[in-house]
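WARN  no MSA supplied for this record, continuing single-sequence
INFO  ligand: zinc ion
INFO  echoing inputs
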Amino acid sequence: MRKTLVKKTLKTIFLSLKDAVFPLKCLACQELFLRQTAHCEMDLAPGKGLYAHHTSLYLCEHCRRDFQGIESPICLRCGLMFKERFSGDHLCGDCLTKPGKISFARALGVYDRSLKYLIHALKYRGKIQVSRALSRLLYALYCQCYTNETMECEGPDIILPVPLFKKRFRQRGFNQAWLLIKDWPLFLACRSGNEKTECIKDGLVRNRWTDPQAGLDRKKRQSNIKGAFSLSSHLDVRKKHVLLIDDVYTTGATVEECAAVLMKNGARKVDVLTVSRTSEKGVA
Ligand SMILES: [Zn+2]
Ligand SMILES: [Zn+2]
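INFO  complex generated
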């Protein structure tokens, strides 16, 4: 008991000294900050608290608290968060008129504020360590989606990252969507009903270069991405329930195109989870 206390005290002293010499730099506001202890997010709502907990090495206390989760009322299919906050979940106009291939899309938070900075730090500044935090947060959303009685309790058969074209992969050095799930096999192995769920790195292939979707409107996004994906020859998705993973959901054009390929190859159902989504359709 005494030994543990001494060990803990020494660790605290070591971390305090380390922080004094090497304070951390917030990836959102760029301010230097000291490592926070776990109790400082106790007063936050569960979603915000989890975000603050997992991002404590990357964001200052102020930025860690600005997370905006996706909250009901949302579109039951595409997960769009409605501006008016007093009705229940229902389908948005687009999903009523043009339902698309995916069965549902859900995201962790609004693509804004510190979450947007974290995604940018990962994708454009090579801060790969951020993916560890985002991966754990996204897994919490996965657990929430597949235990909710209104959705399917059993997890998907296959989890696939939205792929990058090989030229983009060489430029970036990694596929951020894969980094978001590469640790999931460990988590899934411990989750009953999900032991057979497979995370497959190269299940989908991006066949050609596509201009970045950011800044394009819905129509241009659809034509930009049309025919860009195919299924890897080693993957059989017939009758399989597939979950697609990406970092940002904007109009859904990219994931719809992936889902179309999967359905054409016999998939039974395609869901989508992303770390973030825009609060309005097509704005990124
Ligand atoms: Zn900050
Ligand atoms: Zn919708």
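Residues 18-67 form one domain.
INFO  checksum written, moving to next record
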